[in-house]
Design goal:
The chain has 176 residues and is mainly alpha-helical. It has one domain. 76% of the residues lie in helices and 0% in strands. The chain contains seven helices and no strands. Helix 3 crosses helix 5. The protein is elongated.
Length: 176
């Protein structure tokens, strides 16, 4: 093993892919470090809310509350027999939990939008490079008097992203 790579990783993940994964993980850590305190708190709360621990905690607290207030737990007095307080607590908790989840979702949406834009940029750049390679190959084939399929001319054309988006919108069912 060298340079911190695990033996399993060196066998299953090519080095460039391992580097890309490491870069992405570093980027995620930097994004979280750059997030403000409210966003970091919302992320932690949302992470907890999406866990089995949260479900178990809520089941225990609300279950105990209900069992105590229907009189099924001996020696524990009923403090909310009509469950009005439980309903209020649950409602207030839902307001705060929803807010935490929405704050976290907004942060994740911004990150996802940036990544989507990067992916689109890379795809367009790759398409342009591929078109140029096809154009060069077609020029070489022509010079060497090699017959090419008809679609080579189309493949050598640079796609216009706006035209592609317009065509997608035109063909998309109106219900979307």
């Amino acid at each position: 093993m060298s340079e911190g790579r695990s033996e399993d990783a060196s066998k299953s993940v090519p080095r460039p892919l391992e580097r890309n994964i490491s870069t992405l993980m570093d980027r995620r850590a930097r994004e979280m470090d750059r997030a403000g305190l409210p966003e970091r708190v919302a992320a932690r709360v949302s992470d907890f809310l999406g866990s089995m621990w949260s479900l178990a905690m809520h089941a225990a607290v609300f279950g105990t509350w209900i069992l105590a207030n229907v009189g099924w737990i001996p020696l524990v007095p009923q403090w909310d027999p009509t469950f009005v307080v439980l309903g209020m607590v649950a409602s207030v908790e839902a307001i705060f939990l929803t807010t935490f989840v929405l704050i976290n979702q907004n942060r994740l949406s911004r990150i996802d939008e940036e990544r989507s834009e990067l992916a689109l940029h890379i795809a367009l750049l790759s398409e342009r490079q591929t078109s140029k390679l096809v154009e060069i190959s077609a020029g070489l084939a022509k010079r060497l008097d090699v017959a090419l399929p008809d679609e080579v001319e189309t493949l050598a054309e640079d796609p216009e992203p706006e035209a592609v988006l317009d065509e997608i919108r035109r063909q998309r069912p109106s219900s979307l």
